[in-house]
Amino acid sequence: MAEFYNKGCGKCILLDERKGFMLIAAVERNEYIIAPSPVEPDGSWTWGSYYKDLFTAVAEYQSRTESK
Fold this sequence. Notes:
Layout: E1 2-6, E2 10-18, E3 21-26, E4 31-36, E5 49-51, H1 54-65
Antiparallel strand pairs: 1-2, 2-3, 3-4, 4-5
């Protein structure tokens, strides 16, 4: 896990990264984000799907990253 700062979300933790996606915890906002990888040098990403519930975020992340 890597910590980084995002201008809009504050302190973030990269929970997992695979198959072109990242699962991020936005600590200060109590949110989970699925975004394309890698994170930019300034701590940003181009788009993201935001979730308040970890279970829902993980299920969606697994759906997007599972082998088909």
